Amino acid sequence: MKRILNTGCLGSTGANLVDRLISTSEVTVLDDLSSGRLSSVGQHMANPKFKLFEGSVLDQLKTNEEVAGAR
Ligand SMILES: NC(=O)c1ccc[n+]([C@@H]2O[C@H](COP(=O)([O-])OP(=O)(O)OC[C@H]3O[C@@H](n4cnc5c(N)ncnc54)[C@H](O)[C@@H]3O)[C@@H](O)[C@H]2O)c1
What residues does ligand 1 touch, defined as CB less than 6 Å away? Predict the structure, then answer.
């Protein structure tokens, strides 16, 4: 199964992508919550194929550690 990293997933574009991708892929998402809403992916929270990390894509070390393995 594909593993996908989706940044900014709590916004309009990212949340729609999660909806599309989760049926065929493991989706790891990274969002700093600066404008996004957790409710935009609420329906996926209990899905074991879905992982959400709070952080900025500008924090390279945190990004590397938390999303290792996703592409
Ligand atoms: N009409 C439609 O169907 C439709 C579809 C998609 C988007 N849009 C519109 O397009 C515009 C852009 O949408 P969008 O999804 O690209 O942007 P957005 O602003 O909706 O979402 C951006 C996301 O990125 C996050 N983010 C910002 N900086 C970050 C960082 N450094 N690290 C991690 N996460 C970070 C924010 O918290 C947010 O969740 C919006 O106005 C949206 O309403 C409309």
Answer: 7-8, 10-14, 30-36, 56-58
Cβ pair 31, 59 in contact under 8 A: no
- Out of 12, 19, 54, mutate this one to test ligand 1's pocket (max ligand atoms within 8 Å of CB): namely 12
| Topology adopted by domain 2-66 | Rossmann fold (3.40.50)
Tens digit of each residue's pLDDT, the chain (71 residues): 889 988 998 999 999 999 999 999 999 999 999 999 999 999 999 999 999 999 898 887 766 776 666 66
Enter the pTM of the model: 0.85
Which residue ranges make up each domain of the chain? 2-66
